[in-house]
Amino acid sequence: MTTTTESPVAGIEDQRIIEQTKLIALDVDGTLVDHNGHMSEGVRDAARAVVDAGHQVLIATGRSLNATLPIIEKIGLDRGYAVCCNGGVSLRLDPDLDLGYEIIHKATFDPAPALRALRERLPVAKYALEDADGNFLSTERFQDASFGVEAQAVDFHTMLQATAVRVVVFSSENTSEEFNEAIAEIGLSGVTYSVGWTAWLDIAAAGVTKASALEQLRRHLDIHPRHTIAIGDGRNDIEMLTWAGRGVAMGQAPDEVLAAADEVTASVFDDGAALVLRGLA
Fold first, then answer.
1. Residues with Cβ < 8 Å from 163, sequence gap 6 or more?
2. Tens digits of per-residue pLDDT, 162-196?
3. Dist. CA 3–CA 81, nearest whole Å
4. What's the maximum distance between 2 C-alpha atoms anywhere in the chain?
5. Contact of 234 with 25, CB cutoff 8 Å
6. What 3-state class would DSSP assign to 124?
7. What is the C-alpha to C-alpha distance for residues 237 and 264, in angstroms, rounded to an integer?
8. Sheet hosting strand 263-264, strand order edge to edge
9. What is the pairing mode between strands 263-264 and 2-3?
């Protein structure tokens, strides 16, 4: 693993790679924006520069669609692709479309088995679910900025009947360590999941990750794997970082994320993403 420096020196082979169009996958929370949702001018300008340079810049986030669109707009990305819901939803961006985008892929699943198992082990946790139509259903009026829409409060039985794109579980009664232990004991099957910074769990369809969605887009765009770059900070970025030809972890990332990366940049509080992006524009 290497550490990103402010002035990378490219050799002849490196220079040849730099001249190629790259697929650059960017996580949002903890990467482009801090944990208060703020994007610095340095990160914004560096991201806009790689977009303007003609690279295929893709947002790849756990956020749902409506919470992703403001980030896409902020970095000046109006053409190309984006991955939302940890790979559950993929968008094609085009200013000629009525909404400026269209959904080109959506991976749904039956959340009932996972929800029942989780409810038995974590009865006081809060649950939210994004359905196939982009609506959010939640228990106890559970709301989060990553949903992008106001969640509709429903009973647990109603949630079991839905078809899901994304399920979120949050517990304010448990530490992150206790939450991890509970998830491990449950042994979730038939889904893909990742545990966040706190007692937070994201669940997607089996086999669906940011990396699986990005690989579909990489093949469609016909970009060689060695020209792929990913920057992220969370456990839901591990597959993406190992998928990329160059996986870069943010400096504040957990140890298992750092271990999955090829290199480490500065933290989100020190504009670590900008440091990497400036070397690509």
1. 108, 109, 110, 111, 131, 132
2. 999 999 998 877 777 777 777 788 877 666 766 66
3. 29
4. 61
5. no
6. coil
7. 13
8. 2-3, 263-264, 246-249, 228-232, 23-26, 56-60, 80-84, 89-93, 101-106
9. parallel
Share of the chain above pLDDT 90, in %: 70
Q: What is the pLDDT of residues 195-232, one digit of tens each?
A: 665 678 888 999 999 999 999 999 999 999 999 999 99
Collapsed DSSP state (helix, strand, coil) of residue 202: strand
| E strand or H helix at 258 | helix 255-260
Neighbour count for residue 114 (Cβ, 10 Å) = 21
β-pairing, 101-106 with 228-232?
unpaired
Between vectors from CA 187 to CA 185 and to CA 192, what angle results, nearest 5°? 135
Q: Give the bridge partners for 247, in sequence order.
A: 230
For residues 166 and 184, give the distance between their C-alpha atoms in angstroms, rounded to a whole number: 19
- pTM for this one? 0.88
